[in-house]
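Supplementary Text 2. Reproducibility record for the structural model of the 70-residue chain.

All settings were left at their defaults, and a single model was retained for analysis rather than an ensemble. We include the record here because the model underlies the residue-level annotations in Supplementary Table 4.
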Amino acid sequence: MEEPMSSSAGQRRDQDIALDLMKFIAVTTGYGRSSAPGAGFQGTDSKAEDYARHLLDLYGQCLDAVEGKK
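Retained model, structure tokens:
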């Protein structure tokens, strides 16, 4: 027997879909990554923070798209 979906279950599903969409876009396009790889120590902390910020922005855009917002 299936359990009826509550509004919180539907919301979680939108979040899962948005996360999968974000992963797909980030992996296939290299979204948020710098294009110039380098050797040695180059202050990776700020680059990691920038990359995380880009991914969070992308996730927000994906969630808006899944929920039908503009």
